[in-house]
Write a structure and sequence with these properties.
This protein has about 675 residues and is mainly β. It contains 10 helices and 31 strands. Strands 13, 14, 16, 17, 18, 20, 21, 22, 23 and 24 form a 10-stranded antiparallel sheet that branches. Strands 8-7-12-11-10-9 form a 6-stranded mixed sheet, with no helix packed on it. Bound molecules: MU-OXO-diiron and calcium ion (3 copies).
Length: about 675
Amino acid sequence: MPESAPRRRPLPLIGQVGGGRSRATCRLRCGDACFHPAPNTSDNPYFGDVFATALSRRTALRAGAVTAGAGALGLSALNPAMADPRGPSRPHPSPRPTFKSVQPNTDDKVTIPNGYDQHVVIRWGDPVLPGAPEFDVHHQSPEAQARQFGYNCDYVGFHQLDDDHALLWVNHEYTNEDLMFPGYTDGDSATEEQVRTAMAAHGGSIVELERDGRTGKWVVSKGERAFNRRITADTPIRLTGPAAGHELLRTDEDPGGTLVRGMLNNCAGGMTPWGTFLTAEENFNQYFANGSGSAEARRYGLGTGSSGRRWERFEKRFDLAENPNEANRFGYIVEIDPLDPGSEPRKHTMLGRFKHEGANSRLAEDGRVVVYMGDDERFDYMYKFVSAKKYVEGSRRHNLTLLDSGTLYVARLSGDSPAGEIDGSGALPADGEFDGSGEWIALCTDTESFVDGFGVAEVLVHTRLAADTVGATKMDRPEDFECSPVTGKVYCALTNNSAREPGQTDEPNPRGPNRYGHILEIVEEGSDAAATAFSWSVPLVCGNPEDADTYYAGFDKSKVMPISCPDNLSFDKDGNLWISTDGQPGSLGINDGLHVMPVEGRFRGELKTFATVPVGAEACGPFITEDGRTVFLAPQHPGDDGSFEEPTSTWPDGDMPRPSVVCIWHKGGREVGR
Ligand code: FEO
Ligand code: CA
Ligand code: CA
Ligand code: CA
């Protein structure tokens, strides 16, 4: 057997208790989203014959008008110079990762393949801004934390300044106060100092890095670090786009409805062709108390009681009884310009409001920018934004306006196999594939709504409710999207859906319950990202490959590794899909990890495990540098179900768990995975 061929040990016979995470992470990250009834109670059908669903004549006509317009534009200019910087650009090289898979494990460390090395780049509490004190877990304060690296790292972005310098962007999704503060019990007894420290540990960080010699190792820059920045739950953020200033967004503190304090629960994100970072507010609902119980509040999971962290005790903006519109100001895609440390971050209302997982952009054939976005909730939807204006190379000022106008779409999918052949077991239909077609349904442009009863601002603030009315397809928690730089195909991670019953399955969501998740592959019509029609297939149905309900694109399942709960996606230069996971401990009894799978050629489906993360952690990031020599990985929430006094992980330093970012490179200078 060649060294590259995977050898797989049997999985432990423990922990196969269902998709998902430890109880602590569910409570702190998502506000126990999976323990509440799924908030999508719309009567959108589950089955693939949704094309029979009646669109209102008005909706259909207007959506059709937009489709026709987009088509005309798409034909107008096919200038290769305008091609997506990350779009199809070179012949497909028939790639195959050659490293030897890391074995499934429950070790409290980051495990990487033989021949590779790793470095902890930055940890929770490390200094970021001038004047930041060194981390001292017994003397943390809001002032110190606002200058230090925040908690739970999720999305990792990387903007390379030159061969040896770069800016790292990291989301700080949420806080685990049980691990951050000695003696912490709950939100009711939390001190104001603890609450404000936790608020300062949310948000994101920009950190200057430099290359260590000529290797793939990157370290925190020792120089001036003028670009370093912290965004917290208190940083002023500008609302932009068509809904900015609308009465739904006005509060006593901000009567103009255009300036929000902070961003919350930023999960994944993406980079734009013009070099900014997009960061996605996800489970924002859990920070708010005393919701009204209205249909809008229920659809977004806003509870009627107190919040878990009880921030409303110290900041009345989190009390919806007093500030009913404040929650309308969260749940957006936020754009950060790393090259302008003084710039205001911007919440883009044009990209809709939901539990945004990420935002991955590319250029359409005619130069318009397209952003793919998932709403990470059981039975929620996939979205796409297409800008009105075109990207202009070198015109930064112009490009910074592209996300303010355009069209917001939601996806509707249809299978090509008879519904009776999709029985919920994961068994393939007679045509051998879960596949079919789909369309992007226009919800609104910046000037016109296509949803009956909704104005433009209502669509953009109550996006879930607008999408409920047009027959969008209920998906199994759409997480990250990513576009192949080699083929232009688009991939979406559907992480799991424990609530989907066998009778609710359809071809794009073929298992009920779906404890292990799957990957969706989308081919836009004409390979144009702005198209309103697409075909789709499911190349990977996750789980233990020894189980009949898994599918690895038809590859020999005795030669692949287990994977569960796909979350974040990335591509290497060869067009291999890198998949990080969030939920392997609860579903397979093994640590989460980073896997690599070719999606083209004869090795399509040959999934290998490149790295595993410490006990309790999910594997976030990943990001592969443009030279292909470094992969960044962010093990989030190590030791998530422990306490300060009784940690269940001591990664990375052997004393206590600290969410951190690591970089991994080949000792011989090879591109990662090669
Ligand atoms: Fe924060 Fe959808 O994961
Ligand atoms: Ca089929
Ligand atoms: Ca995620
Ligand atoms: Ca996650």
